[in-house]
Design goal:
This protein is an alpha/beta fold and about 260 residues long. The chain has eight helices and 14 strands.
């Protein structure tokens, strides 16, 4: 899956490419001017087909996606992107219903902006998402590994988890990322703020509470066959992964993966 550009501070901003997805030409051009003034390279798209073409040809650091794309469904576009790429997505919407934002976040979007918006807010949120992506990239570096815990095997290369019987567990991209964060930091207490930085989300209370929802969904998918809770709540502090994590021996050469 496609990642973002490597971290490098302000000097690397000019190397980042943003993809602005909107069927409103005026809004696209306004955002393009805003981002280019800040040193970003900018691509434009109005349809899902154009979005996927850009992703196939260019390394994109972040997408801003208007959910109201005329004849196309913005959530469907987000779904199509997420199947092919882990590039960060910021949704832009004039809709007030919470369900649109929640569905978008569950599909793997990283943040949202409601219309009408302030240009400074847009830039702040873009930079915040890019910072969180940088944190993930730095913290998750290293060769691909396969890790075992509580009757499961997690492959960081395939980005999937299977049971001891080889049955894949159906996780969304954010659920998988949250699980990898926990498994790589087994035994460490992680605050909600830390999880937001590592998994993604806006710096606001509603999205911080969405971490609790995400943890709840993940628990239901991986704790069903275990007598003890793998992800425990630490009152006033956050969460801790209690499972014993061990590297899986590389069956091809007899060596072991390592965290």
């Amino acid at each position: 899956m496609q990642g973002s550009d490597p971290p490098g501070g302000a000097s690397s901003v000019s190397k980042r490419t943003l993809l602005v997805v909107d069927d409103n030409v005026g809004l696209r051009r306004m955002l393009r001017t805003l981002f280019e003034t800040e040193g970003f390279a900018v691509l434009e798209a109005a349809t899902q087909s154009q979005v996927l073409q850009h992703l196939a040809r260019r390394r994109v650091s972040l997408i801003t996606l208007d959910l109201a794309l005329g004849s196309e469904d913005g959530l469907a576009v987000a779904r199509a992107v997420r199947v092919r790429s882990s590039v960060p997505i910021i949704m832009i919407t004039a809709k007030r219903e919470d369900v649109d934002r929640i569905v978008g976040l569950e599909l793997g979007a990283d943040d949202y902006i409601s219309k009408p918006f302030n240009n400074r807010e847009v830039l702040a949120r873009v930079r915040a998402v890019l910072r969180r992506t940088d944190i993930q990239q730095v913290d998750m570096v290293g060769p691909p590994v396969t890790l075992s815990f509580a009757g499961y095997e997690l492959s960081t290369e395939a980005r999937r988890i299977v049971t001891s019987d080889g049955v894949a567990v159906d996780l969304t991209s954010r659920e998988y990322l949250l699980l990898e964060v926990f498994v790589r930091r087994a035994g460490r207490i992680l605050s909600r703020a830390q999880l937001l930085d590592l998994v993604g989300g806006a710096d606001s209370d509603p999205l911080e509470r969405s971490i609790d929802t995400l943890v709840g969904r993940l628990r239901r998918k991986i704790d069903t066959s275990n007598s003890c809770e793998l992800i425990k709540t630490v009152r006033g502090a956050g969460y801790i992964f209690t499972g014993k994590v061990t590297p899986v021996r590389d069956r091809s050469n007899g060596s072991e993966s390592a965290t």
